[in-house]
Amino acid sequence: MRLISICPSNTELVAYLGLTHQLVGVDDFSDWPASVQTLPKLGPDLSIDMDALEALQPDLVLASLSVPGMEKNIEALQERNIPHIVFNANSLNEIAQDLLTLGAACGVTDHAQKVATEYLQFIAQLQAVAQTVSTHPTLYWEWWPNPIFTPGQVNWLTEISKLAGGQNLFHDFELANVQTEWEEIVRRNPDYILMAWVGVAYERIKPAHLLKRPGANELQAVQMQQVYVMEEWLYCRPSPRLVEGALKLAQLLHPESYQQIALPNFLQC
Questions:
Q1: Which of these, 61, 153, 211, 237, could form a disulfide with 9 (CB 3.0-4.6 Å)?
Q2: Containing H/E element for 256?
Q3: What distance in Å separates the CA atoms of residue 80 and residue 94, rounded to the nearest whole number?
């Protein structure tokens, strides 16, 4: 099949199913695995060049609603009658379902089931360890700085926080994304601050920006020097790569408890 992915997380789903060789084009932000760097780039994920996409004669386009604004791409695919699948995972279990859906569409159902099972087993392994830790520090995840957006309860980062033996500071908001004010974060006083600004290069995110805010130096996380810039590709994309991020976070929060845990084979592709 001739596959096109117009979202980084979808490109990663393709890779974990061993189908990267079937990709004929990707969006500009798809950067993993390294082999996709040589493929035709079709524009930013929110502004795909549909003429260029159609010229590649895809058998299937992998679209997504994981980033607000993707609807325009999906409408264009429908108007042109281009075969496509739309993913929209908000949870770790939904990512397992995405693997199965893509596997069925590409004729690799058995392999997709194997990968999904291994993925879910690794999640269960992390859950088992998380239940043994005695402290569960609060984690403030910053997805966007102005206005401030942070993940709520219906979000994979709340799940990842639990798997790593922590607790999302805004787990009590029954939303996927929460717009809040800096004063509320100061009031909640997190143990850790984790900065992962979506769409911003890792090296451009500086804790110094956050430390200029009123009352920042009084926060527990700042006083304990527990402010970290986190990799967008491990925490902000709905693909199995999130559990690699979960393990990295767990080894940061509880190094002794998680030190013996190794990544499953399928994550080492």
A1: 237
A2: helix 255-258
A3: 28
